[in-house]
Design goal:
Structural class: alpha+beta
Order of helices and strands: EHE
Largest sheet: 2 strands, parallel
Helix content: 25-40%
């Protein structure tokens, strides 16, 4: 983009990150798996990236 605005701690842009993407309609086991992956990533110190789209 020609211009990018940011707010917050920009140092996290230089850290390892992971993003979870998927369907808005999840089965229970897939929702549980995504939650477990997100929690594990956070425990490992990874930055969780979100596009801020409406999800499950």
């Amino acid at each position: 983009p020609g211009c990018l605005w940011a707010k917050g701690d920009l140092s996290i842009l230089n850290t390892p990150a992971v993003a979870l993407v998927g369907s808005r309609e999840l089965r229970a086991e897939n929702r549980d798996f995504a939650a477990a992956v997100g929690h594990r990533a956070a425990e490992e110190g990874l930055t969780l990236v979100s596009g801020n789209a409406r999800g499950a």
